[in-house]
Specification:
The structure is a single chain. By secondary structure, the protein is mainly alpha-helical. The protein folds into 2 domains: 299 residues, Rhopdopsin 7-helix transmembrane proteins (Up-down Bundle); 104 residues, no CATH class. It has 14 helices and 9 strands. Strands 7-8-9 form a 3-stranded antiparallel sheet, with no helix packed on it. A two-stranded parallel sheet has the order 1-2. Strands 3-4 form a two-stranded antiparallel sheet. Helix 4 packs antiparallel against helix 8, helix 7 runs antiparallel to helix 8 and helix 8 packs antiparallel against helix 10. It is globular and about 70 Å long. Keywords: Chromophore, Disulfide bond, G-protein coupled receptor, Membrane, Photoreceptor protein, Receptor, Retinal protein, Sensory transduction, Transducer, Transmembrane, Transmembrane helix. GO terms for molecular function: G protein-coupled receptor activity; photoreceptor activity. Its main location: membrane.
Length: 473
């Protein structure tokens, strides 16, 4: 027979172990225990990965001077929200899964759900800010130049947090509520109850926190794509690119790389939260009876897994992030596949992926006959592969070159013949030769700018100074 037991009678009355109904503070669901254990273990693995990965992102971006730009502050804020999401959600969810129920009480349930809502909404608004920032930098470069400073970036991030706080607090004051969900091992806002209060909150929450930001993000990236395509076609029609047009096109091309990485982050975030949104909208439409505990818990777990996308993407696509991590945490360089020569080289750490190395070798036949060698390495690119830095650096440094070898030599047939040979990664070999008298050897200079169509402009100049060095024009 069914016996109702209290906490005191469970240890004394053996009949309670046959079949008992315990009055727990929160309801439970009748599912196999291993389902709880499996889901809890998955969330634990995701949470640990998210905590470690997002901490490394924040550490690298805050420690490296080349990564501390106003635009990258939004990346740090995104990593912070994901890190806090993992810290506040993972341990509690795992412990509850091991007990097959919620064990921390009503107030803890509300706080747990509030943290999940706050950090999730802040992540979405931060992604919106990143998309808008990329939109202005690429489509309106002159108007946006110098506008976003670190202080203004802090103001924008504070506004994102306050906006998310505004939509996270109402359940504490009776507009909807924070309740257990799914397998009853986690809590969220109440989207299952078919009441005017719950339905109105759910509707406005989706409109102002999910759909409107998503539409703005889509609009921004459509405009970015159109602007980059138009600029690329315009440059393709130019037979001989001018210095300003080449510089402008290179900057836009680099910013497009930044936008693509941000787009990947946004798409993965939306895909992660889409199943959970579909479940909530299904309940909002009045079909909550069709949803099973698994249909609530699994999408919630997928949504929480969005916290690991940010560090993984930047570990794969951001070379300066990998170099920063390998420099400050050496053993991570092996995991991130950073070459040893780059791992222990300060110049390669400070330079971008598109480093330029200009090496000149000249000899003075009238003096010592020994070759003189000078090299110039672009140790700090004006733009990283993920975030533009035009607002914090002068325009004269916003050109990065793609030259891998530059070697002027004197012809064997004529001592006064200066031959300049350039080998680029994609642009082939270029030679520029000029003849001078033996007493007036030539020194050649190179201006090589890489754009999306791989345009190369070589300028040969003459100088009476045998020891003149190569530099960027």
């Amino acid at each position: 027979s069914e016996v109702e037991c209290t906490y005191s009678t469970i240890s004394w009355n053996s009949s309670c172990w046959v079949a008992m109904t315990v009055r727990w503070p929160f309801p439970t669901v009748d599912v196999p225990d291993h389902h709880h254990y499996t889901l809890g273990s998955v969330i634990l693995a995701v949470g640990i990965t998210g905590m470690v990965g997002n901490f490394l992102v924040m550490y690298a971006f805050c420690r490296s001077r080349s990564l501390r730009t106003p635009a990258n502050m939004f990346i740090i804020n995104l990593a912070l929200t994901d890190f806090l999401m993992c810290v506040t959600q993972t341990p509690i969810f795992f412990i509850n899964s091991m007990h097959n129920r919620w064990i921390f009480g009503e107030k803890a349930c509300e706080l747990y759900a509030f943290c999940g809502a706050l950090f999730g909404m802040t992540s979405m608004i931060t992604l919106l800010v990143i998309a808008v920032d990329r939109y202005f930098v690429i489509t309106r470069p002159l108007a946006s130049m110098g506008v976003m400073s670190r202080r203004r970036a802090l103001y924008v991030m504070a506004a994102a947090w306050f906006y998310s706080m505004f939509w996270s607090l109402p359940p504490f004051f009776g507009w909807s509520a924070y309740v257990p969900e799914g397998l009853m091992t986690s809590c969220s806002w109440d989207y299952m109850t078919f009441t005017p209060s719950v339905r109105s909150y759910t509707m406005l929450l989706f409109i102002f926190v999910f759909f409107i930001p998503l539409f703005i993000i889509i609009y921004c990236y459509i405009c970015i794509f159109i602007a980059v395509r138009s600029a690329t076609r315009a440059v393709c029609k130019i037979n001989e690119g001018t210095r300003d047009s080449v510089k402008s096109m290179h900057k836009m091309r680099t910013e497009w790389k930044t936008a693509k990485i941000a787009l990947i982050v946004i798409l993965l975030y939306v895909i992660s939260w889409a199943p959970y949104s579909c479940v909530a909208l299904t309940a909002f439409a009045g079909y909550a009876d069709m949803l099973t505990p698994y249909m609530n818990s699994v999408p919630a777990a997928i949504a929480k897994a969005s916290a690991i996308h940010n560090p993984i993407i930047y570990a794969i696509t951001h070379p300066k992030y990998r170099l920063a991590i390998s420099r400050y945490i050496p053993f991570m360089g092996v995991l991130l596949c950073v070459p040893t020569r780059d791992r222990y080289s300060n110049s390669s750490f400070m330079s971008s992926t598109r480093r330029s190395t200009l090496t000149s070798t000249t000899s003075d036949p009238g003096k010592t006959g020994k070759p003189r060698q000078s090299s110039l390495s672009d140790s700090e690119s004006a733009f990283t592969d993920t975030e533009g830095q035009h607002s914090s650096r002068p325009a004269s440094r916003q050109v990065s070159s793609d030259v891998t070898q530059l070697q002027p030599t004197f012809s064997q047939r004529s001592k006064g013949h200066c031959s300049l040979k350039v080998k680029g990664r994609d642009s082939g070999a270029f030679e520029k030769a000029a003849s001078q008298s033996p007493s007036d050897p030539a020194v050649c200079r190179l201006q090589h700018v890489t754009v999306s169509v791989r345009m190369c402009v070589c300028v040969s100049r003459f100088n009476t100074d045998v020891g003149s060095k190569f530099d960027h024009l």
